Amino acid sequence: MDDFQDLQHQQSSENPGSAAEVLKVSTRLGLTSFGGPVAHLGYFHEEYVKRRKWIDEKSYADLVALCQFLPGPASSQLGIAVGIERAGILGGIAAWAGFTLPSAIALVIFAFVLQRFDVHNAGWLHGLMIVAVAVVAQAVWSMARTLAPDRTRGTLAILTAIICLLLPSAFTQIVGIAGAGVFGHIFLGGQQQSQQAASLRVLIKRQTAITAWVVFIVLLLGLPLLRILIPSQTLAVFESFYRAGSLVFGGGHVVLPLLQNEVVPNGWLSNSEFLAGYGAAQAVPGPLFTFAAYLGAVMHPSPNGWIGAGLALLAIFLPAFLLVLGSLPFWNAIRGRAGFQAALRGINAAVLGILGAALYDPVWISAIHTLQEFSLALAAFGMLLLWKLPPWLVVVFGVIGGYLMNGI
């Protein structure tokens, strides 16, 4: 253990940094990183690897692999990991805050506008809901190429989608993901060779990592029990968002069905409010998980909107931070194991199925009712998939189209 601490001190002195420095750089990324998680990885590579040389190519690739393996928002987890590597745990917090808060603040302001002016039936708002259809459809199309490229995984994705549609509940999704992981471990182990893990510098003590895992598991298992014992909406919201952040594989788009099944049936907000916020989230930079801030603000009307937004934001991102903190010291040892890679291939196929089910219910059935609305969604889909236009521009197109069809 002394040797490990000596190595930690040596590496820290070779690569000094401060939380303030990390916050400054990550805030600029949070203000300019449009385009979703894949684009975020490119922005991070340009800033952290090429421009500032905080980490090398191999370490960056290893961190990307780790964050793709963990549940939660991959781009946010990558930023947290880079922040930890640069300036310790405070650096990780600073990296998260800088990358997350700009879009979270913008979405909270949108929530206040939605409530203040009573625009729930506005045509431009329905345009945002239609854009959500195009965005989720584009995500399904793109993810299918990598997550289900063969007959076996494609079938697994379709079966998962059917089960989720026929038995819609968060429990069904959790069981589907777990079952797909077991299936992948047993039947998908021979599809590709394990990759050689790159060497990753670790600046976290193993005791700290183990503590993070204990906290993560205690909250995941304990909060549902506490929610039963203590009838509190605040506790219920925190538990729902923490569980969603803990169980989402595949990024921000997949959190949609988990959150929808939690907040709408409980009457915390309407389905139209939910989808309008999801459409607005496409127009801001940063991680899609900041959609939670919008939901928290809508569920807690003024003057408590900021408190509700902060509660939801903390709950959904806390698992990401704990998982990164708990995994960094152990990742080099496990990432090359064929069993983990095989299970992950099955999980990814199930994630695709869940997203496909969400495309129909609630996204499609809540937004598309006429041929004109379908035409607008199809045009937005083409703009995203074929013309590769930025999501914010497609959102503007949807807002204008919704206004022209239905009026303000």
From TrEMBL:
Localization, per the record, is:
Cell membrane
Asked whether the keyword Membrane is assigned, the reply is yes
Domain of life where this protein originates:
Bacteria
Coiled-coil intervals, chain numbering: none
The name of this protein is: Chromate efflux transporter
Transmembrane segment boundaries: 87-112, 124-144, 156-188, 208-229, 241-259, 306-330, 342-360, 380-405
Can you tell me which family this protein belongs to?
Belongs to the chromate ion transporter (CHR) (TC 2.A.51) family.
Q: Which UniProt keywords apply?
A: Cell membrane, Membrane, Transmembrane, Transmembrane helix
Keyword Membrane carried by entry: yes
| Topology versus the membrane | Multi-pass membrane protein
Principal place where this protein is found?
Answer: membrane
Annotated NCBIfam families: 2A51
- Annotated Pfam families: Chromate_transp
